[in-house]
Write a structure and sequence with these properties.
With 253 residues, the protein is of the alpha/beta class. It is built from ten helices and six strands; from the N terminus they run αβααβααβαβαααββα. The protein is 51% helix and 13% strand. Strands 3-4-2-1-5-6 form a six-stranded parallel β-sheet, with helices on both faces. It is globular and about 70 Å long. 34% of the residues are buried.
Length: 253
């Protein structure tokens, strides 16, 4: 009976959405996997990460159904690389890489890895590279997998890239200062050439960015859901879409 009620509510929510006002780019902090595992009585956090990975396939399907053109998933932060035990980190990286390979097999989405891939184990980085190549020509939703990602590091890497290119020209620092603009920096981010996210969703009740898309989120709308990521339902997603469409976007004004 409860499932029937939810399906009815889903249809009402979806019918009320405007196709022309749909966010073109949605960023998601998939938070709460470890707490979910604990709440379910599991001994290992990996069981929560595995459940979270399964939810991602559902989530991307929902986005595709509504015509969302681009999604960025925050899967592994630079802080995670130093703040987790080796066993948990190894398991989490394997779950993420296996998830990317499963998504590639579905042939529905174009996958791009954004982050400091050089900090990952060599084999994991290689497998992620193969996923990118395999899905490069897919026409579905463009999915950014933020792995070994940190917003501050992304900006630092962008500045480093600009300086290196500038040095090759033999021009002076003064000349670089004259051409240094926000647009130039944006071009050198991991997401260079992509539109900024219209909407950022974070699950698990936390209300902070945790370094996610710091530059790109300057004019994003934020939506915080109480549900832990493995428990995030289509109803929750549709509520986020409804909330976004009810807002009057000011773009900093």
């Amino acid at each position: 009976m409860q499932n029937l009620v939810y399906r009815f509510y889903e249809k009402r929510l979806e019918a009320a959405l405007s196709e022309k006002d749909m966010p073109k780019h949605v960023g998601v902090l998939v938070d709460g996997n470890r707490r979910w595992a604990l709440s379910q009585g599991f001994e290992k956090a990996g069981q929560g990460h595995a459940a979270g990975a399964r939810k991602i396939i559902d989530f991307l399907s929902w986005c595709s159904e509504l015509g969302v053109k681009r999604v960025t998933l925050y899967l592994l932060s630079t802080d995670n690389l130093t703040g987790r035990s080796k066993d948990e980190l190894d398991e989490l990286i394997e779950i993420i890489v296996s998830l990317s390979e499963e998504l590639a097999k579905l042939s529905r989405w174009k996958l791009q890895v954004v982050g400091d891939i050089s900090s990952l184990p060599f084999q994991a980085a290689q497998r992620l590279g193969k996923v990118e190549k395999k899905t490069a020509k897919n026409q579905g939703t463009h999915v950014n997998l933020a792995v070994a990602y940190g917003g501050r590091k992304e900006i630092a890497d962008a500045m480093r890239s600009i300086l290196k290119k500038h040095a090759l020209t033999g021009a002076s620092i003064e000349e670089l200062a004259e051409v240094m603009t926000p647009d130039l920096i944006a071009e050198h981010l991991y997401t260079g050439g992509q539109p900024d996210p219209d909407l950022l969703i974070r699950t698990s009740g936390e209300q902070r960015l945790s370094g996610f898309l710091l530059w790109q989120s300057a004019n994003s709308e934020f939506y915080f859901a109480e549900a832990l990521w493995p428990d995030f339902r289509k109803v929750d997603f549709l509520r986020a879409m409804r909330d976004f469409q009810r807002r009057r976007r000011r773009f900093g004004a």
